[in-house]
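Shapes recur. Our protein:

. . .
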Amino acid sequence: MWRLPGARAALRGVRAAVERHSRAEATTETVAGAMERAVVRCVPSEPKLSLSFALADGSHKNMQRDQSEPLGRALSRIATNALKGHAKAAAAKKSRKNRPNVACAGPGPEPAAACEPVVKLYYREEAVAEDVLNVDAWQDGAVLQIGDVKYKVERNPPAFTELQLPRYIMAGFPVCPKLSLEFGDPAGSLFRWYKEAKPGSAQPDGGGPSSLSRSSPSPSWTETGVDERVYTPSNADIGLRLKLHCTPGNGQRFGPSRELESVCLVEAGPGTCTFDHRHLYTKKVTDDALIRTVSYNILADTYAQTEFSRTILYPYCAPYALELDYRQNLIQKELTGYNADLICLQEVDRNVFTDSLVPALEAFGLEGVFRIKQQEGLATFYRKSKFSLLSQHDISFHEALESDPLHKELLEKVVLYPSAQERVFQRSSVLQVSVLQSTKDSSKKICVANTHLYWHPKGGYIRLIQMAVALTHIRHVSCDLYPGIPVIFCGDFNSTPSTGMYHFVINGNIPEDHEDWASNGEEERCNMSLTHFLKLKSACGEPAYTNYVGGFHGCLDYIFIDLNALEVEQVIPLPSHEEVTTHQALPSVSHPSDHIALVCDLKWK
């Protein structure tokens, strides 16, 4: 179970707040005379405000009214809406001698149908005039009276706009709810986890991967003892469903609570994973002098879920282990267990970024940015306690080469080889560049680059040209825009240490007669010499492989670092060959990708 260091006292305070808030909610709902809650959402950028409240008959009303409308019209509509619900329920509880507070519209054969409850809005114990505009009338702390029932108006309280549990939950793997808040933040919110008392004892409400309700936990649920945003089920939870009770907050007040029930049961995990031993080296977040950096191609779902992948690329992998819901559990556990400060990911599906990675990594203190390529893209995450995002300088290689004056000299060389030029311009590869600033020392900034170069085995010359564009752009950011800031350049470069691309990065030049200029045959040969002026080295050296599939294994991934400003404190050992080949090759039931993450601790010089 993850906790912030030294947070026991704070945790006790949160638990007390949970209990106080739960008691307050219960009191509001059960004690006679206590005020109900009327929630008003009113933001300047929208023409309408919304009003939400529960009637005595149990029905819930949600109204949309123009902010510029006089209050009297809104109150009249509330009275009309309440007539069939609240007034009838109130009338049933009253004797004929003690009638509810109603106003009748006039005589008629059926006067009950023409009677509406008196509806008034009070602020500081004075009635609000009916000609006051809605935007000004519905103030926080006002009191709405409908007949005999009073509602406390809460204007723009913290509220969940999205709340969802994963569709696949495994014992031993963190459950990270996807949530979005308005007028609040996760750090100020309260969470409490429950599990079924016994299998099948709590019936799901149905409708999708999770369901929402406002009811208190029933006797069929038992507390897990965990009141944090993330819950890791144990083997004792296998076969049970989970429930999350959430109260949105902002550090000053709380909004209406919600409950979220998983429809899926907790399933057994795969046992030991390839990254479990690696996590022994990364149990804690590093101190401020270090930057734990991860580079990882996580295998896009758009590639894993093809017939070609299942039958040709990864025929040795169990089909269920290629399913996204399964792999996401492994990816979340692996990444959160590294306690990294920087994470650069490749082959990230957009929905995986928003629905899986952001909820999981945000819960562990990281924030991320995304750059789409075509079907998938790049993601860079950074630890919020250590870094803030200053600026982004992402490019598409072919667009930059075509139109950015920075690459004029390179373009003049490339256009001499029309066939090569056409192929380079057809590629969709992108470069993600983020400039981060230390939260502890504003003078410390860093340029973090992330890319995924063209994949084809015969595309060596294309990768050389892409890398030339990348290094020129990175130098512009780290020398011209932010003079002297160090560089960390991560990615899947699809190049082994024997290739021209690697030689170019490490040595600063590539001769025009290098064999990679004819990587796709003599007819496409493009002879050009290239140079760059960044001093880079591979932080993790040259592992035997970072990609291991049935028909190939080799080192394709690197974390290149600025030799002038950074040094390597430690490299987290890669999984052993025995671990990698336990299920023949990658991916497998114990490893979610065909690549292996690179992890190292870097130190400012």
User: Anything to note?
Assistant: The longest helix spans residues 8-30. The chain has three domains: 35-85+119-156, 159-201+220-261, 274-604. The chain has a mean pLDDT of 89. Residues 35-85+119-156 form a domain with the Ubiquitin-like (UB roll) fold (CATH 3.10.20).
